Amino acid sequence: MHMFTLPIAILLCFFQTILSSTIPDSMLITRDIPFSTRAYWMRRANEALGELSGSPCPFAAFGTAVVNHTGTDGLGDQICIGVNQNRQTGNPALHGEIAAITNCTAILTDPHGRFRLTASEAQAAFVDLTLYTNAESCPMCASAIRWAGFKEYVYGTSIHTLVRKGWSQIHISSLEVFQASLDLSSHTLLMGDVLANETDPYFLWQFDPAYPCPDGCSRSGNGTTCRVSTRDELK
Questions:
Q1: In this structure, how many other beta carbons lie within 10 angstroms of the beta carbon of residue 48?
Q2: Average pLDDT over residues 81-106
Q3: Kind plus residue range of the DSSP H or E element containing 231
Q4: Residue 210: helix, strand or coil by DSSP?
Q5: Which region holds residue 133: left if phi is over 0, alpha if psi is between -120 and 50, else beta?
Q6: How many C-beta neighbours within 10 Å does residue 226 have?
Q7: How far apart are CA 105 and CA 74, in angstroms?
Q8: Average pLDDT value for residue range 200-222
């Protein structure tokens, strides 16, 4: 029951923030998307880690999936995925959400792809999309989500949990960023702590040598990092 009620509670908190503005109630309706669908895409954000980083247990285990639920049946349509690429590229701004937005833009504007949008059409398309990320966005990424104009933003592990478990963070929540962005023409709906019981383990081992590694990984020889398990270790 906990993992069903907590996201709704945070969502209602955001409703109270924006209902006092001029945003019509029709902008707030997302109850037609079941929790099972939310869980599917949050798990997809977790799966992106192995697909794009080459490991199910990268140190910065921040994964993102961008989905179109607008005018689609069933689960929705995946547009792109992204993972934190700071270490791979040396770009300190390339967090999972920024990487996903960059990937989506390339896919939407690919002249040989399935969308073939112009730059302006691609920019406008984000208002119909939902961004799922397995950890709450830093203020840089939360701001990028608002500037992109996403229809929805759904996260798993909270910044509070990250800080409590040893992660260095800028202590500004997504809700605070959203509260400060009401002048923007777009309106993004926020839902937090979705499937946190499954996303939290991706961020609990890095600064706690006693915490088990994610599935498919095991502690390195000195116990300070997790790495992909060998075949013998998986037996």
A1: 24
A2: 96
A3: helix 231-234
A4: coil
A5: beta
A6: 23
A7: 24
A8: 92
Paired sense of beta strands 63-68 and 77-83, if any: antiparallel
What pLDDT score was predicted for residue 233? 53
Amino acid at site 215: D
| Domain 35-228 CATH (choose: 3.40.630.30, 3.40.140.10, 3.90.25.10, 3.40.50.1000) | 3.40.140.10
Angle subtended at Cα 94 by Cα 229 and Cα 66, rounded to the nearest 5 degrees: 80
Structure-block tokens of residue 95: 């967090």
> Average of pLDDT values for 125-154?
98
Whether 26 shows a pLDDT value over 50: the answer reads no
Domain ranges of the chain: 35-228
- Residue type at position 225: T
Q: Where are the beta strands (DSSP E) in the chain?
A: 63-68, 77-83, 129-135, 152-157, 189-191, 217-219, 226-228
CA 161 to chain centre: 15
What mean pLDDT is reported for the chain? 86
Report pTM: 0.86
